[in-house]
Structure formats: structure tokens, C-alpha cells
Write a structure and sequence with these properties.
The complex is a heterodimer of chains A (301) and B (244).
Chain A lengths: L1 H14 L2 H27 L7 H16 L5 H23 L4 H21 L1 H4 L22 H23 L2 H11 L1 H7 L3 H27 L9 H14 L5 H20 L3 H15 L5 H8 L1
Helix pairs in contact in A: 2-7, 2-10, 2-11, 2-12, 3-4, 3-5, 3-10, 4-10, 8-9, 8-10, 11-12, 12-13
Chain B lengths: L1 E12 L2 E12 L3 E5 L6 H9 L6 E6 L2 E2 L5 H6 L2 E3 L12 H10 L16 H13 L15 H13 L5 E5 L7 H12 L6 E5 L3 H7 L2 E6 L2 E7 H6 L1 H8 L1
Classes of the chains: A mainly alpha (301), B alpha/beta (244).
Chain lengths: 301, 244
């Protein structure tokens, strides 16, 4: 199955038009974002409603750095992921103590603060006009990722690296402890685990990987605006997890594919695409509470 | 040395005095049961000892070390393990993963995030050993929620043992079990090595008298009586409030 996917991804540009290569690139980037959120939602059991904050912080950093002349990808992604992690380290201090719906509200409120700053601080961020004119980065090694096609392969390579890193993370003793916390915090405490610290660190890891997706997104789309920090994006990532199923790498990636395709196809047909998405959301919750792909799994068992 | 020492421990919830002036010494190697009628404060006392609640006043020491201000996980790390009255396990994880989390809890590797669990041979071996020792090997890949209630109560105790505690706190380990299952869990507890000091809360008098050598009777948050099995059986105050 995975090898089939790999072949499909390698051949896709030869079978479909440039438009679909662009969509696939978006899917790769959103898959990184959704998977980073899944560390919190699927593994630790923390439903964050403000995950766009870490995506957006890295996105703005990428924009500012590009306009200041910093075009080296490795430099920028290192900084972007660092800033994503740093923002999470700061917000985590405030959010981790809360539980359930309170945790959701606090993460939502904190991300909206950043959105507000980006929206209002026009002299720096240009408000909702955003920062346009951001080009593709330089990655050295004699490679050029400026054309859409090579950027497509490059985004896929980064997706693979992030997936391997997250795979190792969630299968480590640390990752097992996260799922223990999801199942029973009090039992984990009784066993001697420092529950708060695990939650806090998982929050930071999620922020770091979200940062990677934010950097790639800006290089792909060519501009930054406050919606990169907004609640729309945070909720979209949660929807990807609900649709694709959380707790795996495959699920969030499939969720990302569904949302990106729906968004682009339906928005071509009607302006009320968010209404369609709303209906999809309700149906998904009612019918596939463990994700659409739980059906595939059930069929296999 | 005393495994556990409580000095003048009190806990108030608003105006309610749940625990009032409890002093208790449990010697290392002892098996002690705390009994008492409903609402006597047994579970509150357990939460105070294990760090899930903090006392309004008084002191708690564990093997001679004052742990009054330590958090639950810190107390667990200094050799205390507890079970729960209402089964508290990792329901969506497999039995193997449940026990592994217990084994891993006392390893420095528990924070390791860059190496798969599969590469920690010793942890896996210890988990396998526990599963075989307790006749659970065949069920290691079963999701915990699919095991019977009786098995889950047994796993409550085994998970606590996986952290190699010196003091084991058991909160009604046989709650809700059939007579046959009760006998099984009781025999597990009685078969534990003597190095593990055991403090048991029990509602079932027969179980308490079967396992423990000394009994402490709690009534309205204070100690009513404390002594050997015979002393407790012969105590008139105890029969009045508890045995009826």
C-alpha cells in the first residue's frame, strides 16, 4: 500500500496538469500541519483549537526573513520551527493547566491574540493586506526548487522527513507515555510519570512541526496574511483529523487530502463552500466517529 | 524503620472534616488493613498518602523521608504504588502496553523521544516476564477494554507491582468481584514478597482479616481502634460502629 502511494506521487505530475500538482503540494504541507496537531489530539488527548498560531508564527517569520533577504531554506526552517516551538512553550505554560473544553477555549483565545496582532499592527505586518511577493527559497546542494514541479517533490521530501521524525517520536517511550496520559492521567501520576511535563513537551513538539508546515506554506503560496494564524485554519486541521482519523500518520494525511480537494473543487462550484464543509463535518461526526478510514481498517480486520 | 508514618493528619473540605488528627505508623514489611464504615474517610486518607490530595495539616513520611509536600508522581518515584477503587487502566491500549507503561515508569528512558520502545530490550523483557509470571501471556495483544472485569482487577495490582514499589497501597482490590475472583486476587496479594509493605483499604471484612496482620479502624475521619486481628474482633466499640 505505501509503495503504491509512493509510485502514484512520483508519477502524478506526468499524469495530471499543473493545477493538480499545486493541489498535491498543498496536501503535503497540510498533511504536515494536521499530523503535528495529531501529536496533541490523537496521542496526548489535548484538543487544541489554536494550532494555527504556530503555523502562522513560522509563516510570518518566513515572510519577514525573505523580504529581509534571507533565502536559505535550511536557515529559515530551523528558525521557523524554533519559533513555532517557542510560541508553544510560552502558550503551553498558560494552556496546559486547563482541561477539556477549557483547554480548547484557552488555546483558541491565545491564537486569536496573535491573529489580532497580525491584523492590527499594520506598520509591521501590513494588516490583512499581508506580505506579498515571497519567492521560493534556495536549498543549496546544486538543487533548484523554484519551479512548481521541483517544489512539489521537495515538499514531499520534507513531508517524508517529518513523518519519519513523528513516527519515531510516537513510538518512543515518550510517545507511549503520551497515550497513557490520553487514557488515564491519574493512573500515569500514580505510576510516577510527571504528567504536566509530558503534556507540555508534547505541546512544544506539536508547535515545532506546525512551524515546518508554516514555512513551506509561505514558500508555496508566495504570501503571508493573518488567516495563516486564524481560527479557520485551526479548525480545518481539526476537521482533517476528524475526517481522516487520528492516532496514525496515514489518517491525518488523508484528512488533509480530503479537505484540500473539497475546498478547491467545491469553491469552484459555489461560494458557500464552507456550508458544504459544515455538512461534511456533521456527517463525519455522526457516521464515522473514528475517521473515514476506520472503515477501511474495519474491512481489513 | 517505618515504611509509612502519618502524624496528626487532617483534611477539611470546607466545613467538612474528612480526616481529623490521624496518626499511624506502619512498619516495613507489615501488612495492614484500614477498615471502616462508608464515609469513614478511607479513600480520602488514601488520596492524602498517595499525594492525590494534600492535607490541611499534619505530616506524612515515607521510609523516614518527609513527603508531605511532594506531588503524587514524586511520591511514586520514591517507592510508593497505588491501585484504584474504580478500575483505572489504559482501556484502549493493549495489555502489553499497559504493563509496559508500568515497567517504563521507573526507567530514565521514560523521557526518551528519539528511540523506539522496541529497541529497549530490557524493558520489553521485563514486561514479558511479568506477563508470563501472572499467566497473562496469551492475552498480551488484547485491548484492555476487552478483558473481563475480574482480569482487570488483577491487572490493577500487577500494574502497581510493575513499578517495583516498597510500599503498596491497595484501594479495595476485590471491589465488585465474585467469590472465586476475590479468592484469586486475595491469594495474589498474600503471595507478594514480604519486602513489599502493604496497606489495604477493604470493605469486605473477610478479605481484610485474611490478608492483614494488623487492622486500623477508621470512623468519622479518626482512628477508632488499632490492633491485631483478635484485638479488633474483641473490641466492643468496633462491633458497635461496624460489625453491628
Amino acid at each position: 500500500m505505501p509503495s503504491l502511494f509512493a509510485v502514484l506521487i512520483l508519477l502524478l505530475p506526468f499524469l495530471f496538469s499543473n493545477y493538480y500538482v499545486g493541489l498535491a503540494t498543498q496536501i503535503f504541507i497540510m498533511a504536515i500541519f494536521a499530523t503535528s496537531l495529531d501529536i496533541l489530539v490523537g496521542h496526548t488527548g489535548l484538543p487544541s483549537m489554536g494550532h494555527a498560531a504556530y503555523f502562522g508564527v513560522a509563516a510570518y517569520a518566513t515572510g519577514f526573513l525573505y523580504l529581509a533577504g534571507v533565502k536559505n531554506f535550511w536557515c529559515v526552517i530551523f528558525l521557523g520551527m524554533g519559533l513555532g516551538g517557542l510560541a508553544a512553550a510560552f502558550f503551553g505554560l498558560l494552556a496546559i493547566r486547563a482541561r477539556g473544553p477549557y483547554f480548547m477555549l484557552i488555546t483558541l483565545a491565545l491564537s486569536q491574540v496573535l491573529w489580532g496582532v497580525a491584523f492590527k499592527w499594520r506598520s509591521i505586518t501590513k494588516g490583512d493586506d499581508g506580505l506579498p511577493g515571497i519567492g521560493r527559497p534556495e536549498i543549496g546542494m546544486g538543487l533548484n526548487v523554484k519551479p512548481d514541479l521541483s517544489f512539489y517533490y521537495f515538499a514531499f521530501a520534507i513531508l517524508l522527513i517529518v513523518f519519519i521524525a513523528i513516527f519515531i517520536l510516537v513510538n518512543s517511550p515518550f510517545g507511549y507515555a503520551l497515550r497513557g496520559i490520553r487514557e488515564s492521567e491519574s493512573r500515569m501520576k500514580a505510576l510516577g510519570y510527571h504528567v504536566w511535563l509530558y503534556k507540555y513537551l508534547s505541546f512544544i513538539f506539536a508547535g515545532i512541526f506546525a512551524g515546518a508546515s508554516g514555512v513551506l506554506w509561505v514558500y508555496y503560496s508566495g504570501f503571508v496574511n493573518p488567516s495563516n494564524l486564524g481560527v479557520d485554519l485551526s479548525v480545518k486541521a481539526l476537521l482533517m483529523l476528524i475526517l481522516g482519523g487520528s492516532g496514525s500518520l496515514f489518517g491525518p494525511a488523508m484528512g488533509a487530502a480530503i479537505i484540500v480537494l473539497l475546498e478547491n473543487i467545491v469553491s469552484g462550484l459555489t461560494e458557500r463552500w464552507s456550508l458544504v464543509l459544515g455538512i461534511v463535518y456533521v456527517v463525519a461526526i455522526m457516521v464515522f466517529s473514528e475517521g473515514i478510514f476506520s472503515i477501511v481498517k474495519r474491512g481489513r480486520d | 524503620m517505618n515504611a509509612l508514618e502519618l502524624r496528626d493528619l487532617s483534611k477539611n473540605f470546607g466545613g467538612l472534616r474528612a480526616i481529623h488528627g490521624v496518626s499511624l505508623e506502619i512498619e516495613a514489611g507489615e501488612r495492614r488493613a484500614i477498615i471502616g464504615p462508608n464515609g469513614a474517610g478511607k479513600t480520602t486518607l488514601f488520596h492524602l498518602i498517595s499525594g492525590f490530595l494534600f492535607p490541611s495539616s499534619g505530616h506524612i513520611s515515607l521510609f523516614g523521608r518527609d513527603v508531605t509536600k511532594l506531588q503524587a508522581h514524586q511520591r511514586a518515584a520514591s517507592g510508593m504504588a497505588r491501585t484504584f477503587q474504580v478500575t483505572n487502566l489504559f482501556q484502549k491500549l493493549t495489555l502489553f502496553e499497559n504493563i509496559l507503561l508500568g515497567v517504563q515508569a521507573i526507567q530514565t528512558a521514560r523521557f526518551c523521544f528519539y528511540r523506539p520502545v522496541k529497541s529497549f530490550r530490557e524493558m520489553l523483557r521485563e514486561t514479558d516476564r511479568l506477563l508470563k509470571e501472572w499467566n497473562l501471556w496469551e492475552k498480551r495483544n488484547v485491548q484492555l477494554k476487552n478483558l473481563s472485569y475480574g482480569e482487570q482487577r488483577k491487572i490493577e495490582v500487577i500494574l502497581a507491582l510493575a513499578t517495583k514499589p516498597r510500599l503498596l497501597l491497595l484501594d479495595e482490590p476485590t471491589a465488585g468481584l465474585s467469590p472465586a475472583e476475590t479468592a484469586l486476587v486475595t491469594s495474589i496479594i498474600k503471595g507478594l514478597p514480604r519486602e513489599i509493605t502493604t496497606l489495604l483499604i477493604e470493605h469486605d471484612m473477610d478479605v481484610a482479616f485474611d490478608i492483614a496482620e494488623r487492622i486500623t479502624v477508621l470512623h468519622f475521619g479518626s482512628i477508632l481502634a488499632d490492633g491485631s486481628l483478635e484485638q479488633i474482633k474483641g473490641n466492643r466499640k468496633v462491633s458497635e460502629v461496624y460489625l453491628g
